[in-house]
Amino acid sequence: LIKHKLFSLINIFGLASGMTVCILALTHIKGAYDYDTFHPDAERSYRVITNLNFKDGRHMLAASSPLPLGDYLKSNYKTTIDKCTRVYFSYDEVTANNKNLNAKEAYVDADFYKIFGFKLLSGSPATAPQTVVLTGETAKRFFGKENPIGQTISIGKSGEYMVTGILAEPKYQSHLKFDLLASIPIGLDKQFLDWSDEAAGYTYVQLKHNVEPSVLHPILQNATKEANRLMRPSANKSYVFEAQALTKITPAMRPIYNIAAGPAFPNLIAFASIGLFILLLAFFNYINLTLARSLDRAREVGIRKVAGALKHHLLLQFLSESVLIALLAFGLAQLQLKLISTLPVVQNLTGSVSHDTTLWGFLILFTIITGLLAGWIPAQVLSSFQPVRVLKGRFNVKLFGGAGLRKSLTVIQFSASLIALVSLLVFYKQSEYMATADYGFNRERILNIPLQANSYERTATALAATAGVEQASATSSLFGYSGADNKFIKPENSNDSLSADYFSVTPSFITIMGITFVAGQNLPVSSSGNATRYVVINEEASRQLQFKNSFESVGKLIRVNDSTKYRVSGVVKDFHYASFKRSIKPLLLTNNPDEFKTLSLKIEKGAEQTIISRLNLRWKKLYPNQPFEKRWLDNELYQQHLHKSDLIFVGLLTGMALSIACLGLLGMVICTSKNRLKEVGIRRVLGAGAWQIVFVISKEFIVLMFISICIGLPLGFLTGSQFLQQYAYRIPISLEILAGSALTLICLGGLTIGWQTYRTALANPVKSLRME
Predict the structure, then answer these.
(1) I need a surface site. Which of 240, 289, 308, 433 has the fewest CB within 10 A?
(2) Is 439 exposed, middle or buried (0-12, 13-18, 19+ CB in 10 A)?
(3) What is the CA angle 256-345-284, rounded to 5?
(4) Alpha carbon 156 to chain centroid, angstroms
(5) How far is it, in rounded angstroms, from Cα 258 to Cα 612?
(6) In a 3-state reduction of DSSP, which class is residue 606?
(7) Who contacts 590 (Cβ-Cβ below 8 Å, separation ≥6)?
């Protein structure tokens, strides 16, 4: 290792690159299977999920279920179901200790603490009405080092809750994410009685001991009939309930909506396949490079055999060397992981298992197995040399039929690298397109500030008076993100409803966003009386509501969720209010101050640098205990789509694939150069120049590279096209992307080939011919 430093470094780096991706994959996979393993009697616990069948033929699987389902199951099947809890989430503002901060609340029944294994660090569960327990992080956010138990907090419109306990940090992750657990309010809200809202919450049951899981199927069949009978006729859908074992929620085996259930199984398979493929390329590189050194090791083997060494002695020696190299590669892989550990994508992959001792044991075992597998073939080949032929210099190394397979592997490596390179460029170009595209609304000089509950009038009045602010407005959700609330709409005298995205905005928000009206006018300025009964729709909504044209839409009445009538005051031109993954859908804009969550300020041109400090001073006077949070819309849209950490991570994977391919090519060049050393010497003696020899040795590798390009570019195009299918609005895969990828591959491969062949061409012919 010390004598051949460069050679050793190449071997170690090649294996380390493959092992880095594999270690990430192993960590990610173990973390996925560790989800929800800390709950007691998990084998008896189930989540009820909902198959939705819409009248228009669409089907969807949702993790959620109607909230009345929990009461129905617990009341009618007491002999079978031991425990049952409903869980529903909200994102309300929490007021505590003179602080107003947003939090994710989970409202649960008392059985929640018996079904799930969330332990309390101190205090008692929140089973009494109007009580709550906080996570340790939430307690620290609101109360710092003070003891919050016994304190009172206010949660949105739900009222005041008394803190009864603090949750300990669970050892493993759970699909349930929350900042606090609150008892379900005593006064039943309409959502607890509405069977038509399958997205309202989640239902979990735990069977009694010695009850077979199969009994849940007929129970849920009966619940399905009951739900479909009690659902509103206008719901345009039907349910089929089924049980999902708590231990099977993560990894998710199939697409499921309404909750993030951790990593999906297909994604685990894909990531593991990438890691194993890169490691396999590193294996072949190690084999090629080790065999390329066979000329240097051959006489060592011959002398050892003459001195009495047996084959298994040599096998042990070479395998121990490869295991040592694998252990060194494992150390380098850990260093590489440390360097990229700050990337959010890596943190999401590793989760909470980075210090898991069991995992470390698996990784060490994986490293040893990697070393044994990588070194087995070279060890077999090197230990089988015949001492007489070796010491006479008459031997030739052939592996799996000689150089043919190794050339094929080189083509495979460079083709795979080219596919990865094309995919990376497509990913970057699509991300850049979404980050900088024209969304159809103004995104410049718009400053967004999160609002406290019911604080729009007070906050807007104070901040709008700041020098440099042109106009203040508010919205329930920001444009350009994932969308907003979903509502069902239909013309007043029709029974056919359709889905629409719903935003609550001030009329000034429509103005400062520069949204173009094609018919009618803006929402009324007043937010009192009948003002909230007016709505602005987009052209797509007008078309799908089957109005003749946009002008005919103005003044028409539409029903929203069957319960409320709205009059159309205007129609705006279609624009991208949601992500580019979605096509433009029907849109509703109405003025409801109770739903405002963000204050949007239009800033005067030239005042962008000084406005923040002035706004901060006014904010501190309004809310002395609240941090001033602000976001420029243009920057947010740019950062949302052009994720630098994701680009860096995908770039690292592509760089690893390219470096391994170049190392494999280097192994081929070294092997060929050593086998043709005497030929080079003879050519030099006969007068051949260095560049002539470089061309003679390099031409077969150049042919391999062009074959790789012919294979890799079409496959890269197909891979990139498949990736782009998830976007409704996407870039074309241009000639620039394909040509740039091919040129990059040619440059890297050319440098690899040229460097080694030029060194071979400059070798002293006397040294290679003196034994003849």
Answers:
(1) 308
(2) middle
(3) 100
(4) 31
(5) 37
(6) coil
(7) 502, 503, 504, 505, 523, 532, 534, 535, 536, 566
The pLDDT value given to residue 401: 42
* Contact status, residue 201 vs residue 188, Cβ threshold 8 Å: no
Give the H/E segment covering residue 16: helix 5-34
Report which of 488, 552, 421 is spatially closest to residue 196, judged by C-alpha positions: 488
Which of 609, 618, 619 lies closest to 450 in space, CA to CA?
Answer: 619
Residue range 602-658, pLDDT digits in tens:
999 989 889 999 999 999 888 887 788 899 999 988 888 877 777 777 778 788 878
Helix, strand, or coil (residue 658) = helix
How far are the Cα atoms of 90, 118, 338, 476, 478 from residue 103, in angstroms, in the given order?
8, 19, 32, 16, 18
**Amino acid identity, position 672:** T
Other CB atoms within a 10 A radius of the CB of residue 246 amount to 25
Look over the chain and give the mean of its residue pLDDT values, rounded to a whole number: 85
CA distance 668 to 613: 62
Asked whether the bond before 251 is cis by omega within 30 degrees of 0, the reply is yes
Residues 471, 461 contacting (CB under 8 angstroms): no
Crossing angle, helix 735-761 and helix 403-436, to 10 degrees? 140
pLDDT confidence of residue 183 = 93
Beta strands in 550-644 (DSSP E): 557-560, 564-572, 587-590, 598-603, 631-632
- Non-local (6+) Cβ contacts of 229 within 8 A are none
Q: What is the DSSP letter of 247?
A: G
Give Cα 263 distance to the centre of its chain: 9
Evaluate whether 173 touches 31 at the Cβ level (below 8 Å). yes
Q: To which residue do tokens 């937010």 refer?
A: 527
pTM to 2 decimals? 0.73
Nearest to 200 by CA among 486, 593, 483: 486
| Residue 275 contacts residue 21 (beta carbons within 8 Å) | yes
Indicate the DSSP class of residue 208: P
CB burial readout 640-676, b (16+ within 10 A) else e: bbbbeeebebbebbbbbbbbbbbbbbbbbbbbbbbeb
Q: Which two tokens stand for residue 471?
A: 């106009």
Backbone angles phi, psi at 631, to 5 degrees: -145, 130
Name the packing angle between helices 690-724 and 403-436 (round to 10°).
Answer: 50
Tokens 């949702």 label which residue? Answer: 62
The list of the chain residues with pLDDT below 70 reads: 56, 186-192, 232-235, 260-262, 292-296, 351-356, 390-406, 453, 482-483, 526-532, 562, 768, 770-772
**DSSP letters for 443-482:** -TTEEEEEPPTT-HHHHHHHHHTSTTEEEEEEESS-TTBS
* C-alpha–C-alpha distance, residues 198 and 107, integer Å: 16
Q: Which of 664, 693, 667 is nearest to 678 (CA)?
A: 693
How are beta strands 105-108 and 180-183 bridged, if at all? parallel
Please name which of 526, 549, 546, 522 lies closest in space to residue 536, comparing C-alpha atoms.
522
Return d(Cα 736, Cα 641) in angstroms, integer. Answer: 22
How far is it, in rounded angstroms, from Cα 172 to Cα 38? Answer: 7
Which residue in the block uniquely carries the two structure tokens 């010390």?
2
Long-range pairs for 137-140: beta carbons < 8 A, 24 or more residues apart: 137/179, 138/103, 138/179, 138/180, 139/163, 139/166
